[in-house]
Design a protein that fits this description.
By secondary structure, the protein is α+β, with helices and mostly antiparallel strands. It has helices at about 15-30, 40-55, 95-110, 120-130, and strands spanning about 5, 55-65, 65-75, 80-85, 115-120, 135-140, 150-155. It has a domain at about 5-110: 3-Layer(aba) Sandwich (Aminopeptidase). The chain is about 35% helix and about 30% strand. A seven-stranded mixed sheet has the order 1-2-3-4-5-7-6, with helices on both faces. The radius of gyration is 15 Å and the shape is globular. The protein binds coenzyme A. Coenzyme A (COA) binds next to strand 4, helix 3 and helix 4.
Length: about 160
Amino acid sequence: MSYKIERLSKYIFDDENYNKLANRIYYVTDHLTKDYPHHYEWYYQTHLPGVRKGNREVFFVQLHDNICGAAFVKKTDDEKKICTFYIAEYARNMGIGRALMNKAFDYLDTKKPLITMPASKVQFFLHFMYRYDWKITEIKDSYYTRGHDEIVFNGNLN
Ligand SMILES: CC(C)(COP(=O)(O)OP(=O)(O)OC[C@H]1O[C@@H](n2cnc3c(N)ncnc32)[C@H](O)[C@@H]1OP(=O)(O)O)[C@@H](O)C(=O)NCCC(=O)NCCS
């Protein structure tokens, strides 16, 4: 099994590839609109402009010509945040999530980044929580989706 993790910012001066890749990466995470109703707008109007500006990054994983996962991260003076972290089901339990997490840690320069997730997704991240001693710092009721708690680790949601 051979996979490759790259940064989208590597392609910012290659418009055609950049746009194609940005769209392909988005579609791997499109289903997250169920938990994050503004995911599409946020990705195209906030995150991608941040990649061009230099305070946000997209790490994406290519496995046999498919994009099977991505991490969207943000690094400013005030915030080191994993905004989105996802590996497609068919590519799980092969060590890809760990490798991608290490890329995010290196970029953010911390192993305890701000990260939030719906309560229903905590089960997927338990291993990372124990291994890196992530702490629940807030529980936000109906923050992104009415009736659903958003669990905040290692910081506060502004
Ligand atoms: C969390 C997630 C990224 C893990 O990805 P992955 O590629 O399967 O992770 P890995 O194979 O690298 O496994 C990471 C570690 O977790 C452990 N692990 C993986 N799956 C496990 C499971 N089902 N039970 C227990 N441990 C498990 C592995 O043994 C590994 O431990 P190691 O680092 O000591 O070797 C993936 O499950 C995922 O994306 N889930 C959905 C998350 C989601 O919905 N995100 C969007 C909203 S936040």
